[in-house]
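Input:
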Amino acid sequence: MSLANRYSAGEHRFGMVIDIDKCTGCGGCTVACMSENNVGVLYDETDKIRSITWMRVYQVDNGKPFPETQVAFFPRPCLHCEGSHGHHTPCVSVCPATATDYDPQTGIVSQIITRCIGCRYCVGACPYHARYFNWFDTPWPAGLERPLNPAVAPRMRGVVEKCTFCYHRYQRAKNKAFLGGGKVEEMDYQTACTEACPSGAITFGDLKNPNHKVAQLAQSPECFRLLERLGTNNKVYYRTTRAWVRRLADNYLKDEKPGQVAAS
Amino acid sequence: MNWDRRAFVKFAVGAVVGLHASPLVPKLMDDSAIWTQNWNWVPNPEDGALAFANTVNPATGTGVKVRVIAGRLKGERLIRVEGNPEHPTSKGGVVPADASALQNLYYDDFRVKTPLILDQRTGMHVEASWEQALDLVAGKLAELHKAGQAHTVAALGTEAKTLDGELLSRFMAAYGSPNTSFNVSASDTLAMAGWAMTGEENLGFDLLGANYVISFGTPLLEGFGSPVAVRKAFAAWRKDFKRTGTLVQVEPRASVTASQADQWLAVKPGTEAAVALGLCQVLIQEGLYDRSIAGAALGFEDGDKGLGFKTLLAKNYSPGQVAQISGVPVETLITVAKAFAKEPKAVAVCGPGNGGEPGRLLDFMAVLALNALKGNLGKPGGLVARQPLGLKPLGEAVAYRGDKPRLDGLGTAKRPLGAADHLSLAKGALAGAPYKVNLALVAGGNPAFCAPQAGVVRDFLKSVPFVVAITPYLDESSSQAQVVLPCGTFLESWGDSLTPYGAAQAEYGLHRPLIKAYEKVKSQGDVILALAAKLGGAVAQALPHATAEAALKARTAGLGELAKLAKKSYVVQEKPVYGNLGFKTPSGKLEFFSMNLHNLAVKLSGEGGMAKVLKAMGVSAEGPAALMPHYEPPAALAKAGHGRLVLAAVASLRTPKGDQPITPYMLKVLDGDTLANKDQMVVEMNPQTAHDLHLYEGDLVKVTSTAGSTEARVHMFAGAAPGMVFMPVGLGHYASQNAYTYRRGGNYNQVAEATADPLSGLPTWGLTPVAVSKA
Amino acid sequence: MTTHEQGQAKRSGADWLLFVVGFVLFSALGFWGTPALLYAEKPQPFQFSHKVHMEQVSEGCKSCHSFREDGSFTGIPSTDKCKECHSDSPQGDTPQEKTFVEEYLNKGKPVDWQVYSKQPACVFFSHAAHAENAGLECKKCHGDHGDSEKLRTYQQNRLTGYSRDIWGSSILGMGDPPKRMKMDNCADCHRANGVRDACFVCHK
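Output:
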């Protein structure tokens, strides 16, 4: 199926291509994301179940003994699933409070913190652990509240939050376009992690716009999505040439070959 | 109508229904729902006009843009540090140390906000005015000077050649002390290797131009030079899903660089130089080497100096012998050497070690030899000479004119080469020979925590009766100081940064005050200048500038107007300069047999005693080979075995480099294989090695060396070389009792043992024999 | 007749009057008491006449409440903006202007106005989208604030900290902008005009 046809009607489908063969796991994207989106630091962040990282870099290895060992990294933002036929985004379909929705025009899954009742159904529904619950109020001790970004509302305890593809940057880019009478161009709207990545492993843009680089790159047969067979129909594509990395992207049976198994 | 129970009930029911018919209930419901969404302790950052300011982070060399919000009510604040896409080498990328820099700026619990003076009775720092603090320090300095004890003042700076470093050096020389030390880095080693073999000290690797790179034991993607610039080159080798460059990594651990490389040569620890020499030998035996320059180099063929480099290689570094030493199979050596020779633009790279150590001079010389044989000197994608930036000196040269020997022994027969480093200074001072230190001035850094074998520096500072720290942070060094003078981070002060290690183009970074986060904080340069003015006399003459800004203006006079430069924040040469290296060696040729080293040894000894001099410099090879690139087994390895493991560092960009404290964000992105259970450091071990020691995943162990010990949890990682233990760097701060970084893990620098590197005499602490036992 | 029956008989419809009294009394209390209970009156730092200013400027509201180059909206102008016209001595003879010039302008101090239409932190409102792109007039949401001679009393919700203008002057929560600025009002207008109403259109 061609890239654009994978998704329902709607002007844009913002998405990413992440080149795992370029990612060096430095964590630049995670920190850039946190400073952009006012994600704070709890006093104990080794408890990764409670640690909030909208963009988390997972380390994997090939499980082989020395000296054949290799490691690789999967940076994981919210994957902004569309689900089949334009709805059934896993988290959106379970939210009892309509605190999260799928924007048919941009393909971005929202999360409205003031509407969230903290039931955490969505956290359970998300197959990618992209959603985080605020078990505590984020501490902003002694001066650390000063660098807070006014474009993003800080969260309170008891609500769920997640990556928004830096939607506020899209809003601001549109503001500028409204004033200048122009359009939001590819480079006007880029997420904080994309900008920050020193190896340029992340490409962001509109998957429906054939002029956008992301749409061109995502066509590559080396690209795949995480747990594709779940039918989440998400918009974050990964790319690798390493067979073992590719295998880790889904639960393949021993005799199955990645890339040859049809997505549902 | 009676006012009885029934009547009352009617009235009450009416009242209740009436109240519910009014908007009270729905309104209160709505409002209380909103109330729960807006706790007043959740901050609501003020919006305002957004502006961007350029600067360069001196800790990483990254060109960054800082977002400044000008709020109508609360005024300006910096909200974010992001990459500057216009910066020619870092091109908009950032690493965690850049992106979290504001936490070092704004976290009150990290910062020194006003001058502090130690109250001797309570042992606590009390706030003081600048006038008081400077008077106290200047008074002490004047007193020592008057007593003829000026040489017993020591200064510990950070980078020698930056503005702050130059100011400090001038200050100390004019004041009358030879004891100024700085952080040592791989730049020192590369300069020495270049000086020894090519006569050119400013060498760089044209990574962006190369399409075949072999990296010898250096964490190319995790802390080499400017990390962002290196990644930009790496990204270019893999642009748009196409591999246009090949990366070969030589090291003992499946690191990020090794895994991202197209080929990983897993070597035994410390044997990278042998691999480089083995590749040299393959190039020669296959006839694939450059004959015009390398073939004509001094000491290549056998001659009047004795055996030539060619014979040395054939004798000691045949693929079979190298395979024996390094564990890399013969066929692999041959294929890699052939691929290296075949690629027109190929370069071999050496650099800092995983713990930030300056590398070993003989290893660097071996890598230089490989590049020379490849014939890439001065060529695109090869080893290039950087052109100078054209910075002006701050005045006439000021040198120490006294007759007192240096505490670190630099320049004597024991340490003819090298650079003034903190550890040697501390060791000399602790020995008290020939004299003790009466006052130590720690300028800008945190040597009690970050210096090699930090425990020695910490003990040294403890032994000094009067310590002055000029620093932005409450850290392990400033907490030991009698007087703490607050200086700014790069976001709030004037200063500069020089070309990052190994860069092909000369770079210059400027930073200026973008915000006044704390009223009393000054630029480090301003503090030194204020002290100089107070002391008067020769010191004031040597430092005539009124402010750091004025000094910077004088320094950059050749580059343009300071105001404009500072706004742009960087000067970067457009392209590497290609062309012949020129060979400013005594022979005027490339030298495999280093005449510079030879002449130095001769000068120290007279022809006869040269062997003795070289032995004292730590070289075990004899004859002409001693002055040629060759492999010397690291001292640490000799002591390993017999139940001892070899400790090495894990290079990572999630932990800080150099003197920068770890930030809360950096701690947050550490995975469970670096920090676990809130405050326990995790060390990596090969599962087989752990098994041999009866250790299992998550076991708490004590890692002990002769330098110190620390506790850690064991993580079994198949990619760790057997017989080794790998430890993260930059954890374990213990001075500032803040909620985030206080006692999170242990400090690698306190366990790693520093030894003097053969020839260069620089401290090196890449490999340490340790005992690992269950805690 | 038993006593019980007597009581029954005596009870007339007039008894129900008490129900009505209770109802009326307490619903009135609800109507009038709710706002009194809920809203605190906060003084503005000094009086300000939009009308007087409007007469002086050439470009209407935009003269002071302008867009920045990046498309963001300045909102309340900074003291520096006032300085473009005001000098360090008052131009008129009102005590308010004197206060402004002496206490704020000359000291470079920002005026801590209470903002009637301030939305909470979770709201992203784009003036560019409404005023520039859709061409709505300021009046559509802000009413005749721009022609007012005096600043109204600012009422702040004690529970939520919001300005009363958000819920609106009607305690029943009725009306459309400029009388009310709740999310429903935004959504109604968006729907009526075929503008998308996904959550992230207005939330951040």
